[in-house]
């Protein structure tokens, strides 16, 4: 498994979606790195490049360099295993 990264935003209006992503990841005991994109313009640019969308907003999820999608679409349970998101 690559390094699971969750791009989040401490000042965005998507806190509920971000909380749901963390709940799913934590519930599946997945290790991940939270990256607060408003803190760094470079991190925001990195998130948008990986998402392939210059207007992408948090949360966005990557497994290593592979873009996994928007946090609201993150599966749990067996589906997470199929994406390689399990420990």
TrEMBL record:
Keywords: Acetylation, Cell membrane, Cell projection, Cytoplasm, Glycoprotein, Membrane, Nucleus. The keyword Thylakoid does not apply. It is found in: Cell projection, Ruffle membrane; Cytoplasm, Cytosol; Nucleus. InterPro entries: Glut_rich_SH3-bd (IPR006993), SH3BGR (IPR051033), Thioredoxin-like_sf (IPR036249). Pfam families: SH3BGR (PF04908). Gene3D superfamilies: Glutaredoxin. One of its GO terms (cellular component) is nucleus. It comes from the Eukaryota. Could act as a modulator of glutaredoxin biological activity. May play a role in cytoskeleton organization. Belongs to the SH3BGR family. This is SH3 domain-binding glutamic acid-rich-like protein 3. It comes from Dromaius novaehollandiae (Emu). The lineage of its organism: Eukaryota, Metazoa, Chordata, Craniata, Vertebrata.
């Amino acid at each position: 498994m690559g390094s699971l990264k969750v791009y989040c935003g401490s000042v965005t209006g998507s806190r509920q979606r971000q909380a749901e992503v963390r709940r799913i990841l934590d519930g599946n005991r997945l290790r991940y790195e939270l990256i607060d994109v408003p803190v760094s313009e470079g991190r925001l640019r990195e998130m948008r490049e990986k998402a392939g969308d210059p207007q992408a907003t948090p949360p966005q999820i990557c497994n290593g360099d592979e873009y996994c999608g928007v946090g609201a679409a993150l599966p749990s349970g067996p589906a997470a295993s199929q994406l390689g998101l399990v420990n």
